[in-house]
Amino acid sequence: MAKTYTFEEVGNHNHKEDCWIIIHGKVYDVTSFLYDHPGGGDVFLVAADEKDASVGFDEVGHSESAIEMLETYYVGELDTDTITSTTVSDGENHALPPHAPAATKTNHSFAVKILVALLMLALPFVVQYYYGKGNDPPNGEN
Ligand code: HEM
């Protein structure tokens, strides 16, 4: 059975002679891969410091073979009850950063819709005004 590590335990392996990272609730010992990783070793050290590498790993859009390589470095599961950081992945496909509330964008688009509706309502009057004007014979030429 896979060993379970506490969040603190994983955090202790945060240097280049001993570097563990967390990706989607799983713990990986990437010490031996530090100098061979095509993306450089620094990203692992940063990830080890930040405690969770899920978002970084996903954002790169790693290849299938990179995803398969994860198995090589797998050492166990993270005890999710011990997580003390808000930026740690919950083991699903997303991390748990405090999300900003939805922007007030909707208010803006609502105002635009109202404006468009008013313009459409006014359009027949505008057309009639110009059409009527254009049909009027010029003064004194009749
Ligand atoms: C055990 C975990 C990881 C493995 C096995 C791994 C493996 C790989 C492999 C095989 C590549 C070559 C490109 C590809 O096949 O996708 C790569 C590239 C890269 N990786 Fe990772 N990676 C890991 C974790 C991470 C993390 C945590 C980050 C960032 C937070 C990262 C950032 C990058 C970057 C920036 C590249 C270079 C992409 C490019 O130059 O196009 N990797 N990785």
Automatic annotation (TrEMBL):
It comes from the Eukaryota. PROSITE patterns: CYTOCHROME_B5_1, CYTOCHROME_B5_2. GO terms for cellular component: endoplasmic reticulum membrane. Residues 2-79 form the Cytochrome b5 heme-binding domain. It is a single-pass membrane protein. The chain crosses the membrane at residues 110-131. It is found in: Endoplasmic reticulum membrane. Keywords: Electron transport, Endoplasmic reticulum, Heme, Iron, Membrane, Metal-binding, Transmembrane, Transmembrane helix, Transport. GO terms for molecular function: heme binding; metal ion binding. PANTHER family: CYTOCHROME B5, CYTOCHROME B5 ISOFORM B. Belongs to the cytochrome b5 family. This is Cytochrome b5 heme-binding domain-containing protein. The lineage of its organism: Eukaryota, Viridiplantae, Streptophyta, Embryophyta, Tracheophyta.
